[in-house]
Amino acid sequence: MWLPNAPRRVRINEVSVRDGFQIEPEFVPTEQKIALIDRLSETGLARIEITSFVSPKAIPNLRDAGAVAKGIRRQRDVVYTALVPNARGCERALECDLDEINLVMSASETHNLANMRMTCDQSLEQFRGVMQLAQSAELAVSGCVATAFGCPFEGEIAPERVKWAAGRYLDLGMDSITLADTTGMADPRQVSKLVEAFLRWFPGVPLTLHFHNTRGMGLANVLAGLAAGVDSFDASLGGLGGCPFAPGATGNICTEDLVHMLESSGIDTGVDLDRLLGAARELPALVGHDISGQVVKAGKTTELHPVPEWVGAR
Amino acid sequence: MWLPNAPRRVRINEVSVRDGFQIEPEFVPTEQKIALIDRLSETGLARIEITSFVSPKAIPNLRDAGAVAKGIRRQRDVVYTALVPNARGCERALECDLDEINLVMSASETHNLANMRMTCDQSLEQFRGVMQLAQSAELAVSGCVATAFGCPFEGEIAPERVKWAAGRYLDLGMDSITLADTTGMADPRQVSKLVEAFLRWFPGVPLTLHFHNTRGMGLANVLAGLAAGVDSFDASLGGLGGCPFAPGATGNICTEDLVHMLESSGIDTGVDLDRLLGAARELPALVGHDISGQVVKAGKTTELHPVPEWVGAR
Known about the structure:
Two copies of one chain form a homodimer.
Chain A: E1 11-14, H1 16-20, H2 30-41, E2 47-52, H3 65-71, E3 79-83, H4 87-94, E4 100-106, H5 109-116, H6 120-136, E5 140-146, H7 159-171, E6 176-180, H8 188-201, E7 207-210, H9 218-227, E8 232-235, H10 255-264, H11 273-281, H12 283-287, H13 295-298, H14 309-312
Parallel strand pairs in A: 1-2, 1-8, 2-3, 3-4, 4-5, 5-6, 6-7, 7-8
Helix pairs in contact in A: 2-3, 4-6, 8-9, 10-11
GO molecular function (chains A, B): hydroxymethylglutaryl-CoA lyase activity; metal ion binding
EC number (chains A, B): 4.1.3.4
Protein name (chains A, B): Hydroxymethylglutaryl-CoA lyase
């Protein structure tokens, strides 16, 4: 039987504008970010991570976080979220009336040191301050466990370490958890096992999976997540994003390819694929390079081709 | 539980030299084809489709079929197979002492007309002649049902049509069946359903699945096939291959990415991934363009990166 535990409906969290644009070689102008978010807001996506309230020095590409957050046209059914690294970022986010903020720490101590320049304990201490601000403002908080499926420095990450990180998040009062395969190291069996363990450890806690297609396994990992019952996935328009360790490799899983696969397989995403493809088609002009999405190039499976004339003439 | 019906060991049939090279813009010189096959023969692949005994006018890139078949160094554990379109092709193949030949007809009447320039009944009539020759020579024959998961002209293909085609193959005495997603239209649910139906219709008949990654779903479709119990897959080094309807899209599923996913997930392929990656790394120089394989670019998940010095110095 076809994935007996798979959900009938999946929520998709679009991350291109944050996770993708942050590593683009060129700054994407604020008004173009806003235009893209507004366009994505009309596709039926459940959630859009619109920016990161990080230091402009750390990530110059997202130095316009406040202007983006204030400039977009909100749609009622879309959850607008943003990454927040610390209390200062949370204060900036609170000025923008978001629906949710997203906090990130790596399961790998080494990756957290390299990426965040602090230990995991220091990250959690910062989060404590963020949570006080967020809870006073009744702002929903999602906690992302980065490198949950492997670390490019440490290698395998023990599931117990992921349990520890997610447990600390929940102790701090976070509302939902994302397990992120930050550098595309997850394989389908691992996804299956870690998700099953997570659901045992934290029954009822909303779980999102964040995959990269770095080694071509992104959508297979989604299938493994679906089979284990997960109904929420991060994805990035055109497959934008990536990691500095894999130049030339593909980045985040591609939103339009994900929607195409899910809808073809009878799983409802609520997304208007044609509108999404329309937005994806304009991405290469926006970012100045080709994108890794496949459906944009090949067309949907339902788009048929004319029968060659000489065949019809037989 | 992780894919309860999945096999522990999978056989991989390498098709780059036939399915890939046949549509390359440039002819790959005979000695380079032979060198690549010899190299692939030492990786542990179960089967290699080395060429097609088709008319040199129809596919000039494979005009050296006999020279390739006679020039390679056979390894005992590898099954060497070749595509044969008709009795004339079978006669040529028989001169080369192959282990198996492969016959192809589309489930779609329109696609068969466009691709083979004959009706399905005409294809089957030709196969009758081929089978007489093959059976006299005690040569194994595999039958491939092309467009089994969808036709670019007709769209959906009724499962009953696939059953009809495979049934006719078996009536003719073929030993095994390949269901091919010729233009990358399959989705995971469809794979699951069609494979389950096939196993009910034809219990005990060896089944291979042939997928393309045209719309990014290739390895997810493999996972769906594995979940249904399939243990044999076609794949193409570097993801070579493709179809003329999707310029710019990726082609066949990529052998090294497939092996990487399966081995990471604890499924034995018998393939030495490092040797395979070594061969894949030389493909761009051989064919004169970039290839779609990801693991070649990103490295295996087990290849770690040095910790930044300033992290270690903390």
